[in-house]
Amino acid sequence: MAAGLSAVDASPATTSPQPEPRQARPARGRKQHLLDFADWSREELMALLDTTDVMAQVLTRTIKKVPALQGMTVATLFFEDSTRTRLSFDRAARAQSADVMSFAAGGSSLAKGESLRDTLRTLDQLQADLYVVRHPVAGVPYQLTRWTDAAIVNAGDGRRAHPTQALLDAYTFRQRFGGGASAFEGKRLAIVGDVEHSRVARSNAELFTKLGAEVVLCGPATLLPREFAALPGVSVTHRLEEAVEGADAVMALRLQQERMTRGLLPSLAEYVARYQLTERVMRSAAEGAIVMHPGPLVRDLEVASDVADGERSVIEQQVANGVPVRMAVLYTLLVGQR
Amino acid sequence: MSRVVFRGAHLVDGAGDHGVHDLYVNGGVVEGVDLGGEVDREVETAGALLTPAFLDLHTHLRDPGQEQKEDLSSGLAAAAAGGFGTVVSMANTDPVVDEPGLVTDLVRRAARLGQARLRPAAALSRGLAGDRLTDFAALQAAGAVMITDDGIPVADSHLMRRACEYAAELGLVIQTHSEEPSLRAGGVMHEGAVSRRLGLPGNPDAAEALMIFRDGELARLTGARVHIAHVSSKRGMQVAEQLKADGAPITIEVTPHHLTLTDEALASFDPLYKVAPPLRTADDVAYLRDAVRRGVVDNIGTDHAPHTRAEKERDLLSAPFGIANLEVTFPLLYTELVLTGELGLPTLLHLLQDGPARVMGWEPPRLVPGAPADLTLLDLEAELPVEGRSFRSKAKWTPWEGERLRGWPRVTMVGGVLAFERGALAPA
Amino acid sequence: MPNPSVDHPNLTFKASLMSATEMERALKRIAHEIVERNKGVANLGLVGIHTRGVPVAERLARYLKKFEGTQPPVGKLDITLYRDDLTEIALQPIVRKTEVDFDVHGMRIVLCDDVLYTGRTARAALDALIDMGRPASIQYAVIVDRGHRELPIRADYVGKNVPTSAAEVVQVKLAEIDEEDGVELWERA
Q1: Which partner from A49, B373, C86, C178 sits 20 to 30 angstroms from B139, CA to CA?
Q2: B3-50+370-421 — its CATH code?
Q3: Model confidence over A238-259: pLDDT tens digits?
């Protein structure tokens, strides 16, 4: 056979300059993965929120467990530590009678720099039906879909996406404002803080705009580069007052202390003075506006204590909604499979 | 050494189109056309294009020390399969090529292979550490033809200035990987709307433009011949053009991937597309193509940078930079630039033949009696899919997998020896 | 008149099994039997299985109020999460909310549905109900029992027993959902 060539074309053609999009999943009316919201329609996302309602109800019963995922195995694959998220998925799987396996980066098998395909090939021997993947680098859950038949849920990849967090935020939002399919129409979400380094911000911007809301991003230019304005349905401002004015929900992002080091922020004091959510700022928000935070909250940094503990705050509901949202995601991806 | 005839070949070189002739090779050099007489080997060309083998001034052969990625044998065979008769190997091996003995060893080992010719580059700084110059004169005497820390930008402007002064005195070409390190930082792709959306750390075009400006200014200041490798951005190209117009003795290189791929490719999160400098926007690609058309660009360098499959299956931060593209360079550019009418075939050939020769101060390759028989026979008709698994390179994966291209090299001869012959081609 | 080509492209209409009047009579009889068996309606709760079991339970509750003066509480039960075939079906079933607003603990529960067939739905409903608490007893009321049981389950109250073949489909129509009452027999093409 000639080098570099073959008379028989067995492989699919790709077009340059752009590569083929991610492989389309089989058209059987069911999603295989939750990586971000790119291939989820508004109807499918609303159905997911409706299913969350049912799951939330299951969790209020005497026996907080249903047999829906009996005989299925969910594997949590965490290359980056996050006990809260991992336990939330763990509970969501067990509440539907799935078996759960956990792999953590602490073990030598998930060493940094190893071929992801090799790692997955080993784990695939254990026959999980679904992987919940957390990784410090954007894109890893996408990469993994090439090498396994199992479903994949992105539990946070670098700065890229954290779809279940966004779903629980949207669920919390809908819980507060009520309404069915039009719960998000004409509503405005302001996301404040370190947008550039935040997968929560990216996923929420993607989800809320898809559901019909308007999203305003706000933060200092070092943490909110102007290219974000190119996202569909998203506007950008560097003034907190402008972002909050008329907003139905204001989400403060976590500010990591390490951001101080690389010249991204002059000082914490300056950040607090310009971007902390205070009662005074919140007064210009829409009537009944809520305050959200993905946690863990550093008091009096991103959000003033009186706001965090005040009437507008839904921070505790957000935490409580984590399990039912993840139950709905697992159910939606796994039921009807095989 | 045997006598070979290329029967009925369409002869083209930098001097022009010479029509269809039988070209005879004898004793490692071109003997003449339509001579007749006994031959040891007859190559049927069926009117295919016979032209001087290409020169690549930018090849990573990974030998010594990283033979799992590539070695002299596989890398030089890949070069021949891509129509290249000569490659300049980069010095970022393990150990780094920063001592004359390593240069001698490379030249000696490559000569035994009967593949493409190897003209090694040597490191600018010892161990590519960026603080002490290597022994340029000794390296040159051992066979090094270029000085470069390619792969790692030279951060220290003072060191770069001294390198330029010293190289100018010796008549050596300095090749620069021009990216300002502190701005490039941890970037794994072009910084822009796509990197923001994908949440991947970006590397701004300003990092390239700034460093090209510094390197061009140092060339002007010292009179050194500075070759700006792999210019990838519109801003970088504009700065380089301006410097050139102002009389700085610089030359400009672009790569096949920067002419054909954009940062949107990273939306697949496939580390195959992770290169340094990064793939830029469609606007940048259009500008680079325009610069090529306007004659601003001196050569196309492949920046063939092979890695193992396992390395390219890592996450995007830990996967290494580089695409192995010696074997697709000509068909890719012929198909995407020439067949689309964007670029004339003579211009593309120039950028792979006379262009790089002039950058190095070498004789432009010609199909004239007495010239070294470094030739490539190009089949411009057959359209075939790219198939990574049959690459000669050890890196058998490519962004262009499955893409149907035309312009495949059929035969490559180096010094009168058939280094590469493609099997029978399917009819077009 | 039923129009198979529009309503059920793969089914052909075979026979009408119950008219609206017959169905009403059957449900009233079941209500009387419930009263008789439970000696009244004290401590009684009706739970309808989504979808058509819900109007069945609601109607029975209305008759019970008419006969006894007190209306027992009515709940809606979705058994999707308890089905034993979830991993085998091709299309994902929509999960609906279970709405049982009374405490089932210690109550006599009458589970209501339209058709009893394999018994798998009833099995799932029993599990779902028991997960909500510990009822004193669970009874089972259906409009049609068509046979072909796959599990050891029987109904306590049956509107009509109909011997069927596996190729046949029993369609119970309820005005609340289907705009008219009646039971029909259809056959797969």
Answers
A1: B373
A2: 2.30.40.10
A3: 999 999 999 999 999 999 877 6
B92-111 tens-digit pLDDT: 999 999 999 999 999 999 99
A164-319 carries CATH number 3.40.50.1370? yes
Average pLDDT over residues A270-286: 95
B425 contacts in A (CB within 8 Å)?
2, 5, 7
Task: Check CB contact under 8 Å for C86 and A338.
Answer: no
Domain over A42-161+322-334 is classified CATH 3.40.50.1370: yes
Q: Show which of residues 342-381 on chain B sit within 8 Å of chain A, judged by CB atoms.
A: none
Which among A4, A138, A202 has CB closest to B327? A4
Question: At A110, is the secondary structure helix, strand, or coil?
Answer: helix
Burial classification of residue C35, based on how many CB atoms lie within 10 Å of its CB (0-12 exposed, 13-18 middle, 19 or more buried)? middle
> Does residue A78 have a pLDDT over 80?
yes
Catalytic, out of B98, B303, B354, B374: B303
pLDDT for the residue numbered A336: 62
Residue numbers in A near B404 (CB within 8 A): 9, 13
In this prediction the ipTM stands at: 0.88
Token digits of residue A62: 């005497």
Q: Measured between CB atoms, which of A11, A19, A113 is closest to B270?
A: A19
**Cα B404 → chain centroid:** 22
Q: What is the model's pLDDT at position A3?
A: 38
From the list C84, C91, C131, which residue is nearest A336 (CB)? C91
B198 touches A139 (CB < 8 A): yes
Among residues A183, A30, A65, the alpha carbon closest in space to that of C94 is found at A30
Spatial separation of the C-alpha atoms in residues B277 and B230, rounded to whole Å: 7
Q: Is the Cβ–Cβ distance between C146 and C122 less than 8 Å?
A: no
- Asked whether the predicted pLDDT for residue C6 surpasses 90, the reply is no
CA distances (Å), C183 to each of C10, C14, C23, C78, in order?
Answer: 18, 11, 8, 23
pLDDT for the residue C87:
67
DSSP state of B128: G
Q: What is the pLDDT of residues B11-58, one digit of tens each?
A: 999 999 999 999 999 999 999 999 999 999 999 998 899 999 999 999
From B92, B90, B95, select the one nearest B65 (Cα to Cα). Answer: B95
Give the domain C4-188 fold: Rossmann fold (3.40.50)
pLDDT in tens, C138-187: 999 999 999 999 999 999 999 999 999 989 999 999 999 999 999 999 99
The secondary element (H helix, E strand) that includes residue B147 is: strand B146-148
